[in-house]
Amino acid sequence: MALEQIAEVVQNGKILEAIEDEFNGVIVEVNEPMDPKLFHSKLKTSVSHWRQQGKKGVWIKLPIKLVSLVEPAVNEGFWYHHAEPTYIMLVYWIPKSGNTIPANATHRVSIGAFVMNQKREVLVVKEKIGKTLKGMWKFPTGTADEGEDVCDAAVREVKEETGIDTEFVEILSFKQSHKALFGKSEIFFVCILRPKSFDIQIQELEIEAAMWMPLEEYITQKYVQSNEFMKDITEKYKEKVDLDEVHTEFSIIKKKFTQNFLLSLRALVSSLK
Amino acid sequence: MALEQIAEVVQNGKILEAIEDEFNGVIVEVNEPMDPKLFHSKLKTSVSHWRQQGKKGVWIKLPIKLVSLVEPAVNEGFWYHHAEPTYIMLVYWIPKSGNTIPANATHRVSIGAFVMNQKREVLVVKEKIGKTLKGMWKFPTGTADEGEDVCDAAVREVKEETGIDTEFVEILSFKQSHKALFGKSEIFFVCILRPKSFDIQIQELEIEAAMWMPLEEYITQKYVQSNEFMKDITEKYKEKVDLDEVHTEFSIIKKKFTQNFLLSLRALVSSLK
C-alpha cells in the first residue's frame, strides 16, 4: 500500500493514527476521549491493516483519564506492558513467531552509605518503619530515583535522613538480589562518602534516631557479624580506613582510580550463594 | 473497631477482603469476576472503612481478565502503580499528608562481554536491528532478565548471539545512563568472560555476522576511538590482557579479589558528563 493510500485511510478515520518505530512496529498514542465501542472497532480495523503491512509490535499508550479504552484494547487481544501513575502502555504482537518485545524496567537500585568523621565514628540511624532492620543501628540506606546517579542518590539519602552534607568518594561494593518488592530485582551499592557537616538533624517521619558511632562498636554489632555481606563490607571498609585511604584528597583518589578500577563479582556472588 | 467486627463487615460482603501490610496499608487482590458497579460501590465503602481505621496506602491487584474493574477503581480515585503482562496494580493514599508509596522498578540492567581466545582475538558481532550500532563490529551485548544475575546474563547473551560457551571471570567496569527505553534508567556492566568453545554459530534473527577479531584491530575501530567510554574500557581491558590477568586461573583471580575489590565511580561519572 502506497504512503498516500495509508494517509487517506487515516484521514477517513478508519485507522488509528500511529507512528512507526525502528523495529517495524507502530505506536498509537491516544490523547482525546473516544467512545469505547468506536475505539474497539477502529482498533480491529487498524490491526488488520498493520498485519497486511507486515508490522510486528503494536503499542498503545493511554493516559489514565482515558481508562475506559483499556478494556476494549484488552478484549482485542492486547496485554499490559507497563504502567506509570499517569498512563498505561498496552502491547500486541502481530506475527505468529515468538515476540521480541523488550521488557520494562526490571531492577530497583538502592544505596547504603559509610560516612565517617575525624574521630573514627560512622554515621548510623535507627529506622521507624519496616520490620527487618527496625531498631538496629545501621548506615543510612535508600533508593535511587529514576534518572538519578548512584552517587547523587547516596548524598541525597544521607542528607534527607540525617541532615549531614557529604561528598561522594567511591563505591565500596555492590550486591544483587532478586524477587524483592513487586517481584523485581535489586542492585544495592555500598558507597563511601566524606562528611562536610557534622550536626545531626533527623527526618522524624522515617528515622527514630541517628548518631556518630565508633567504627569498632559498629563492627561488633550482632546483626553486622551475623550477616555475611554486612560483615564482609564492614571489614573491607575498616581495612581502607586503617590504610587511611578514605580521608585523602580527591585528586589522590582519582590517581588511584586506575589501580582500583577492577572489580571481581565472582567472590561476591559465591559468598551470597 | 475490634477484629471480630471487621470480620463481620467483611462477611456481610460490604467491605472488600484485604490483607494488611507492614506499613499500615491494605492489599486487595481480586481474582473472581465481579460486576463493575458492585465493585465500585464496595470499594467506596471499603475506603471509607479503612480511612476510619487509620490505614494509609491501599493497593488493588487485578488480573488482566478482570480489566472491567480497572475503570471503577480509577473513578474512585485510584491510580496506576505498575503493570505486568498478566495484571495491573492500582494504588490510593488515604492520609492528607504526602504519600510514601515506593516506586516500581526504575532501572534496566544490561551487559557487554569481552571474550578473548588464545590468539589474542576478541569475539565481535554485527547486529541486524536497531540503528545505533548496526553494522559495527562490537562485543556482544544484551539485557539481564528479571531475577537474573549479571554474570549469568553475560554468559547467556554470548551463547545466544554467537553460540560460544563461556565462564564469567569478572566485571571490568559499569556505566549509568538515564531516560532510556520507556524513560527508565540503565546500568551497563562490562564483563570479562573466558571462552570454553570457539566455533561461532550466530543467531540469525538479530545477528548479521560474528567473528574473532585481533584485539589491536578492535581497539583501532573508529567508533571505539570516538566513544570515550568504549575507548576507556577497551584500553583497560588491553592493559589487563597485557598483564596476563585475564587468562590466569580462577583461584588466582579470587586471591587478587581483595586488592581489586574497590571501584571508584567518580572518574567514570565525570568522564560521562
Q: Any low-confidence stretches of chain A, pLDDT <50, length ≥5?
A: 247-273
Report the CATH topology name of the largest domain in chain A: Nucleoside Triphosphate Pyrophosphohydrolase
Q: Give the SSE order of chain A as H and E letters.
A: HEEHEHEEEEEHEEEHHHHH
Question: Count of helical segments of chain A?
Answer: 9
Number of domains of chain A: 2
Q: Mind explaining what this structure looks like?
A:
Two copies of one chain form a homodimer. Helices cover 33% and strands 28% of the residues of chain A. The first copy, chain A, is of the alpha+beta class and 273 residues long. Chain A has two domains: 12-93, Gcn5-related N-acetyltransferase (GNAT) (Aminopeptidase, 3-Layer(aba) Sandwich), CATH 3.40.630.30; 107-246, Nucleoside Triphosphate Pyrophosphohydrolase (Alpha-Beta Complex). In chain A, the strands form three sheets. Chain A has a five-stranded mixed sheet with strand order 1-2-3-5-4. A four-stranded mixed sheet of chain A has the order 8-6-10-9, sandwiched between helices. The longest helix of chain A is centred in the first third of the chain and has 17 residues, at 36-52. Chain A is elongated and about 75 Å long. The first copy, chain A, starts with a helix and ends with a helix. Mean pLDDT of chain A is 85; it is low at 247-273. Chains A and B meet through α3, β4, β5, β6 and β9 of A and α3, β4, β5, β6 and β9 of B. Chains A, B: Keywords: Hydrolase, Metal-binding.
Spell out the key features of this protein.
Aminopeptidase; homodimer; 28% strand; 273 residues; 33% helix; 4-stranded mixed sheet; alpha+beta; 5-stranded mixed sheet; 2 domains; Nucleoside Triphosphate Pyrophosphohydrolase
